Amino acid sequence: MNRKTILNRIKRGADFLESREKAIEICRGFSDWSSHSQREWELNYDFCFRGMDADFHAPLWASVYMGEKVLLNRTTLEIIEIYHRWGYEPQWIEGNPPDYLGEQLRFLGYLIGASDEATSLRVEEVVDFLDNYLLIGLRAVYRSLLDYTDAFSGITAYFEDLLKTLSEWEPAEDDFCSGSFKLNPKIETENEKIVPTGGMNNCGGICVIRPHVKDNCILQIESDCCEDHSPQIRACVRGRGYRKTYLNPDRLRYPMRRMGERGSGKFERISWSEATDLIAESISRTQKLYGPESRFLLYGTGVCGIMNPGQMMSRLLSLTGGYLDAYNSYSSACVTAISNYVYGNALGGDSAICQLDTKLMILWSSNPAETIFGSEKNYYLSQLKRKGVKIIVIDPRLSQTGAAYADEWFALRPSTDAALADAMAYVIFEEGLQDQKFMDTYCIGFDEDHMPEGVPSEESYHAYLFGKKDGIKKTPEWAEAITGIEADRIRMLAREYATTKPACIDAGFGAQRHGNGEQSARAMMMLSCLTGNVGISGGSSCGNTSRITEHKKMMNYLDTVKNPYPGKIPTFLWTKAIEKGTDMMPEEDGLRGVKKLNSNIKVLFSMASDILINQHSNVNDTRRILSDDSKCEMIICSDVFMTPSARCSDLVLPATSFLEGENVIGSWAGTNYYLKHNQVLRPFFGCRFEWEWMKEVARKLGVYEAFTD
């Protein structure tokens, strides 16, 4: 086969991958075109090569069909170095990483089209590239198309022909030495460097991430290895595996509009201009037709930096008429709500470092070894263990925390935490082990002599524990039948906690994520108050420790814009507000700020949040509600992956990961530090940080200056 034929086939192969129109033209010769409309072929192409099908992904990059299946890895770097050796600078075609099949074909065409007068081009190196990268990739794509559907018969036939051509080709010197232009000079490869950044997820770790980068490829990830501070803010397995997370080939690539029924997983690619037009139109239309209560921003975010997609969208909606807001959270609603009643605010937590002063640690529904609720917590626990401080774990299952740290494990039945705490409080009162001075000084409501004026008798905590009103004493025997923990063990636990000071109950969020979860949270707070462990180093309040007050004041997010619409619903009831929003009432449904909603929710915004389907309860009923697009008319999702929420959206926007931009993030769980995020990689595919496309939407809605101020 002559050089000209080979070059033509290679160029056609590159054109095929880069241009849908070229692909259709090429495929006409390989199938019965009459059985497929041009539109069907366009969609088939998009599903295959642009990731528009939620259930199908062709392996288009050498880093995926070889090795660890992570984009921009060492395989990518190897190919970049081959390119650079022959003076070829990859173009990042449509944002694809340089080891993209189309880029490889372009490179091979570049070599064949060049003369070799001033270089030492060796045929064996070209053959190695062909055999070790390009042909392997073409075969991988060909196999994936065969396994997928018969609808791609023309596409698979073309790949079969291209494979046959390249497999049978035996390159010779003449194939590379009679071209029309010279090879470019060798391109110098940059040195490996470390670009420090940090975890950005809604994760208690918020750890130091130190990627090793060379030519825009991440070779490995280290964590905190600095010796000038302690404890180190080290990443767990999840943090160290962020390459496999965010360089995954299943990343969303381009803006997509839903096709067919909602939730079908079929999309078509649109431009960013079209996408921002749709968003601007949805915001404007719903405001005019239904009012601000028709627009709702879903709770939850996978980006916890100062530049937060949810807060950015809140700003945009507030500048364009307002939106239906929400209160509470899925994470800590019960402990946050009850903290306001017990302590007067929702931030009655402690600095994590104070736990080093405790003499008894009770991890109650707290599992930091697995959930990483603060990067420093496991370090502190290891120090307590080393000092010989007793650690008790209260958890229905033997977690990794229990296995690693526990001197004693209480395996109570799920959601019976309040009964265990009440029985402990009963023993403390019965045996006179309470810190009476602390209670007399700082507490009200614990006995009949310390009740606010006007409260009926037998409403105190003591009266409740001793059954003055309901006739049920909250004894360890009573609790044994409920919790499954032996009464004698409950007594011993109560005595040990009350007689050891300072003692810390580290209360996790698990116990309060149940029906009546606020009672479990309150019962633990009562134990802290009864024993005077509130407000002392080594003690705890059992309050919400996700942000200490000083930290929250320091962590200034985007300047807020006041939402002109006063209405709010509980964050968990958005599904009801889609179907029966106009029927929701203040007392029955927790509606705040207004007496009545004049519209159901008509447009949902899911910004870096997978609440829509994955995190909300009763998934089947949620899917039923969302499948009727006459109820909620538009769902707009920005995310990194085709999550269940993205799949059920009407407009899906590809976001950047924390590796592809800059931000600043603060820490969790009573720790007090900040991490600066530096851009590690250039954004790939058509991904954009939400701020960038929101500015365009703001421009189209006439609020650009106010939005960007």
Structure description:
Strand 7 and strand 8 form a beta hairpin. The longest helix has 26 residues, at 123-148. With 709 residues, the chain is of the alpha/beta class. The N and C termini lie far apart (63 Å). The chain has three domains: 3-182, TorD-like (Orthogonal Bundle); 256-331 and 555-658 and 687-708, Rossmann fold, CATH 3.40.50; 333-545, Dimethylsulfoxide Reductase, domain 2, CATH 3.40.228. The protein has a six-stranded mixed beta sheet. Strands 3, 4, 5 and 6 form a four-stranded antiparallel beta sheet that branches. It has a four-stranded parallel beta sheet with strand order 13-12-11-14. The mean pLDDT is 91. The protein is 41% helix and 11% strand. The chain contains 31 helices and 20 strands.
CATH topology name of the largest domain, in short, is Dimethylsulfoxide Reductase, domain 2
Spatial strand sequence of the major β-sheet: 8-7-18-17-16-9
DSSP, total strands: 20
| CA-based gyration radius | 31 Å
Distance between the termini: 63 Å
Structural class: alpha/beta
Quickly count the helices: 31
Counted up, domains total 3
- Provide mean pLDDT, rounded: 91
CATH architecture of the largest domain: 3-Layer(aba) Sandwich
The proportion of residues in beta strands is 5-15%
The percentage helix is 40-55%
Provide the CATH top-level class of the largest domain.
Alpha Beta
Shape: elongated
Largest sheet: 6 strands, mixed
CATH superfamily of the largest domain: Dimethylsulfoxide Reductase, domain 2
Residue stretches low in confidence (pLDDT < 50, at least 5 long) are none
